[in-house]
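re: the backbone from monday

yeah here it is again, tokenized this time
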């Protein structure tokens, strides 16, 4: 049985600063997941990614990420995306901290 479609946002990393960014309805990038455009169908998701891909000179690694919509606001559906919303991990933590 096919997996049910989950809403999606287009996300990438800023080409120059490395920050996690999200594609908006206005056709720009934002650092706020709450301001991201949300695709509610597979067709809308593919269109969203195609629009985001046109701005490859600004980003690296654009892809679609699953989200849930809670109170009209997208929130990460997977722990990887939740982790990315917290910003860069350029400090020792977890196993890295144990070795340092």
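seq for it, each position gets an aa:
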């Amino acid at each position: 049985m096919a997996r049910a479609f989950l809403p999606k946002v287009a996300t990438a990393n800023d080409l120059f600063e490395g920050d996690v960014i999200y594609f908006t309805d206005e056709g720009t990038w934002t650092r706020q997941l709450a301001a991201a455009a949300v695709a509610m169908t597979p067709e809308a998701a593919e269109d969203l990614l195609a629009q985001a891909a046109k701005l490859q000179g600004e980003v690296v690694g654009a892809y679609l990420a699953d989200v849930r919509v809670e109170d009209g606001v997208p929130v990460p559906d997977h722990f990887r995306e939740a982790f990315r919303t917290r910003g860069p991990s350029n400090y020792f933590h977890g196993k890295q901290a144990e070795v340092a």
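The two ends are 46 Å apart (CA to CA). The chain is about 25% helix and 30% strand.
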